[in-house]
Each structure stands twice: as C-alpha cells, then as structure tokens.
Amino acid sequence: MQYTLLITGSPYQSKACHSALRFIRAAVTKYPNSIKGVFFYEDAVLIGNQTAQPPRDEINLTKAWQEVAEQHSIPLYLCIAAAVRRGIINESESRRYELEQHTLAGHFQLEGLGTLVDLMNTTNKVIQFR
Amino acid sequence: MKHTLIHLNASPYSSLACKEGLDLALVLATFEQPVDLCLSGAALALLTDNQQPTVEQGKNLHKLLAGLEFYDIENVYIEKTNTWIKDNPTWQGAQSLDDTEWQTMFSQYQQVFRF
Questions:
Q1: How far apart are CA B112 and CA B37, in angstroms?
Q2: What ipTM was assigned to the predicted interfaces of this complex?
Q3: Which of A54, A58, A94, A107 is in Cβ range 3.0-4.6 Å of A99 for a Cys bridge?
Q4: How far does B81 lie from chain A, in Å, by closest CA?
Q5: CATH 3.40.1260.10 fits A3-129, yes or no
C-alpha cells in the first residue's frame, strides 16, 4: 500500500508537520516504499522557507523534512499558489516576479494542485494532517 | 476514480482555509474528478447573500457558489439543524441533510479533506 500525505497545518500553529514526519518514519521503517509523495498546502507550505532560522535548542523542522526526503527518496511538493503568496519562491518564480532573491529550501519543489490530483489517483490512500 | 468530499468548516473571512479548500475542489473538478462540498460551523457564512467584503476582509467567495455547476460540482451539503439559514437570505443551492444523513454522508466518499 502506498500513501500520499496532504499536510495543511502551519508548522508554527499546529503539529501537522511534526506528526506527518513521525508517520513517515514509522511507515518507511516497516514498508520502505510506502510513501509516494508529500503535498504541502495552506500554511503548511511555510515548511519550505529556507530563510527561517529556528532557535538552536529547537527542532529544525525544514531540515528534518529534507533529511527524511533524501534518505527515503520521497518527493516534497509545495502548492505553488499557496507558496508564492506566502513568499516561498523558487528561482524561476523569482525571475518571473522580478525579485532579487528566492526562498525555497532544497528538496522542496513548487507544483500545482494538479500534482496532488495525480498523487490521489496513483496511491491507495491520501492522509491529511491539519 | 475516487469520489472526494471537501468539508469546509472555517470562516471565509478569518483565514484562507475556505478559499484554498474551494480552490482544491475546483481543481479536482477541472481534472474531471467527482467532488462534492459540505459546509459546517463558521464556513456556513459563505452561503449568506449580499456579502460586500472590503479588500482587507477578503475575497467575496460567495460569488463562486453560482459557478459551481459549471464545474459539475452539483452537491453542496449542510446540516438541517442550522435553522438560522431558513431565516436569512442565503444561496439556495445547498442541500439540507438530517443528523443521520449528515453522519452517513462522510462514509460515502473515498477521501474527505477538511479546511
């Protein structure tokens, strides 16, 4: 069985991103290829902000997601519309909006909601964390 | 093909949740995925007629309701117990369900997303 995770809860206002991370670690421990992809929507896209600097004695959630993505080859998608409106910008969007900087953290990619629809249709279950 | 229910529960003006939930419903419909909506709690404010929000208050999402049929989103459910709806001018496209129908509705769908 393969899962897609839809995460909508803010990394600062909820534990959605934390709980989903724990779910992934548990899932891949038992079934290594059980997570097809993770789609961040609403305020959850703030997880992909490379400029956020959490205090050193707290978890760096963005880094924790990058590590789990790299270790288990799990794609991390941010909804492009939700991300851009919140200032999470990749290089091409930065050029498009004529900005001088980009803020998207590594291992995250901006995708449209169509990618979520595709994930829904190619995995057994979608689990929302909010 | 999975049948999806988008459950709107947040106020249309307190956050972007309602808007982003509706956006997902419209994208699903655009990709010809069967999708229905249900509204509860503060999201019911979406149904009230004659809304004139300022730019600071947010987009007038009520206007989207009239266009749902063009996306083949034909089912918008609310609970019958929301009696204030009867006493106020509201969008008439929603279907009222009694307690039992409301509760069984959620198990009719392969996936339910809440905003």
A1: 10
A2: 0.92
A3: A94
A4: 26
A5: yes
